[in-house]
Design brief:
Length: 324
């Protein structure tokens, strides 16, 4: 089908662009809508009394370029089903192209078999989204980069680093970027390079059975401002223990930053009691009430980044300049 939008040389025409969302992160979607100056599509996403999800699309989407924005966060399974049913409804309503915009990709930590009979749930989610009818994926800071290969459709993988780094550049003291575990070294190294800062790594190990975990710090943090960098903070246990270890090694101040603030269980309480001065997060996941009230949590929005990516996809421009 020929595209029904004007060329890039003329005035922008967003008349064939539609944005839809479930109930996972409405505030973020509203910001994206304002950035694009495009209203959120008319739809009803609700649950029947027995818990089944019901979706109604209340406007024509025939031939439209549709973007469904939905984080697969708590309540995870409800939000996932909303996404799948929304995509199915839009596909059956003859949308030309459906892009699933996933600020947070749930189940991403189940990306490989860690025991003999374990599932690879991240792959299953990819199959479900593709089967539902998505034409492409736009997501932010996947827990494991190889998840892009779980899809047989195009995947645009954005990074929240530019948003977080702009804020971190305001720290005036000499900074050392710290990876809380060996798996996050590549991410921490990228941050350290952009900030022209030193790098440290926390190596967690048990010296013998039934002995508490020891945190060895590789790199010098004494007298420096340490910034712990991670993609997801869930229970917060690892991050808080890392902060205590950094203080014991002489770090002057400890900050933390992450893209996806899951913050389940007692995470907020642990953060408040920890030596972490401030935790910088993005709005890929809406915060719970206790997290919103926490004075140590600073939320930065990725709406501008996602809006620019959506605009570029719609206008068939390159998105690669955003992969930094």
């Amino acid at each position: 089908m020929a595209k029904k939008r004007v060329s890039r040389e003329t005035e922008k025409d967003y008349s064939w662009l539609r944005i839809f969302t479930g109930n996972s992160n409405i505030e973020l979607v509203q910001k994206i809508s304002e950035e694009l100056e495009t209203p959120i599509g008319k739809s009803k996403v609700k649950s029947f009394s027995d818990g089944e999800i019901n979706v109604e699309i209340d406007e024509s989407v025939r031939g439209m370029d549709v973007f469904v924005i939905q984080s697969i966060c708590t309540p995870t399974n409800n939000n996932l089903m909303e996404l799948l049913i929304l995509i199915d409804a839009l596909k059956r309503a003859s949308s030309e192209r459906i892009t699933a915009v996933l600020p947070y990709y749930g189940y991403a930590r189940q990306d490989r078999k860690v025991s003999p009979r374990a599932p690879i749930s991240a792959k299953l989610i990819a199959d479900l989204i593709t089967t539902a009818g998505a034409s492409r994926i736009l997501t932010v800071d996947l827990h494991a980069g190889q998840i892009q290969g779980f899809f047989n459709i195009p995947v645009d993988h954005l990074y929240a680093a530019p948003v977080l780094l702009d804020y971190m550049k305001q720290l005036r003291d000499e900074v050392v970027i710290v990876s809380p575990d060996a798996g996050g070294v590549e991410r921490a190294r990228a941050y350290a390079k952009r900030l022209n800062a030193a790098l440290a790594i926390i190596d967690k190990r048990r010296e013998s059975p039934n002995v508490s975990q020891v945190m060895n710090i590789i790199g010098d943090v004494s007298g420096l401002t340490a910034v712990l960098v991670d993609d997801i903070v869930d229970t917060g246990g690892t991050l808080v223990r890392a902060a205590y270890a950094l203080v014991e090694k002489g770090a002057q101040t400890v900050y933390a930053c992450c893209t996806h603030p899951v913050l389940s269980g007692q995470a907020v309480k642990l953060l408040m009691e920890s030596p972490i001065e401030e935790m910088i997060v993005t709005d890929t996941i809406p915060l719970r009430e206790e997290a919103i009230a926490c004075p140590k949590i600073k939320v930065l929005s990725i709406s501008t980044l996602l809006a620019e990516a959506i605009r570029r996809i719609y206008e068939d421009e390159s998105v690669s300049c955003l992969f930094v």
